[in-house]
Amino acid sequence: MALFPLPDVGQDNNIRRMQMGKDEKRSVIITGSAGQIGSELSFALAKRYGADRIVVSDIRDDTEGRLEGAGRFVKLDVLSKDEFGAAVRRNNVDVIYHLAALLSAVAEGNPQKAWKINMEGLVNALEVARENRCSLFVPSSIGAFGPDTPLDDTPQDTIMRPYSMYGVTKVSGELLCDYYNRKFGVDTRGVRFPGIISNVTLPGGGTTDYAVEIFYRAILEGRYTCYLKPDTSLDMMYMPDAIKAAIEVMEADPAGLRHRNAFNVTAMHFTPEMLAAEIRKHIPGFRMEYKIDPVRQAIADSWPNFMNDSCARKEWGWAPEYDLESMTADMLEVLGKRAAEGGLEI
Ligand code: SER
Questions:
Q1: Which residue lies with its CA nearest to atom 3 of ligand 1?
Q2: Which residues span the domain enclosing 113?
Q3: For the domain that residue 171 is a member of, what is the CATH number?
Q4: CA gap 346, 339 in Å, rounded
Q5: Whose CA is nearest to atom 1 of ligand 1?
Q6: How far is the CA of 67 from the centre of ligand 1 (A)?
């Protein structure tokens, strides 16, 4: 049942934008560009649309020049709606990738701050998108689910009662993004990312970080102490697939989208002991020890063991490229090369 009549102007305008495809000129701003996803997605968007069309932004100055070449850098605190709106207007932006947020373990350490950054930042992004007729990508997460969710083959539409503050902000964010779409015609879209494994920027305090740290420690020290139990199953994805998901869902024909915020997407699921076994195929002497962190273990136990992402596959053609085997081989090759050059640190 449609609760709100769709407003003509905004909806048409946004649909037109999303149908432009990759050959058309579009300007994109990325918030949280210096973070784990932003630091790679910014360059991928620059490659796809041209760096002259990309505005990279972060609350931190790009002092090390890590974002150089990805686009124009703007220092931006997403909690300031005025700054946010000005950056969008000045740069003629029509697509916003709103990545600035706190991850799950950090959020649990300071839930009030997490609510403020994750929700007030999102409200600003939605308002700026509404006022300036921008499309908006907002990442949700496996963290949006909770212990009452069916944790095996987790459906797209199911019970979502997360216990973590991170999850509370993710579910609230999904609802708000759908609300802005129905009420104001803002072209909001998102995916529920699983743990993301990458080799450029370390994640900043999530529950799934072990699956990144393990590679650095395996190469540097030949051993890793894991904070999750050996049999904790979680969905994961290699960064190239995460970037592909973020771009493809925004370029999808809106006529095919029955869902918007947010799509289950996954590429693989494994436990710490399965990942250790895969690493051992390359580094036979690799040793894994366990020292359980009760906070992150409780969060992980309340998240899906593996998700069903058939809606994303059906509605916009989602298909990941990397599985556990190919991701592990690539991570070890890239980081191994960096270590050989003396540039691997954690
Ligand atoms: N990787 C995220 C976290 O662990 C999940 O969205 O917080």
A1: 206
A2: 28-195+238-264
A3: 3.40.50.720
A4: 11
A5: 195
A6: 23
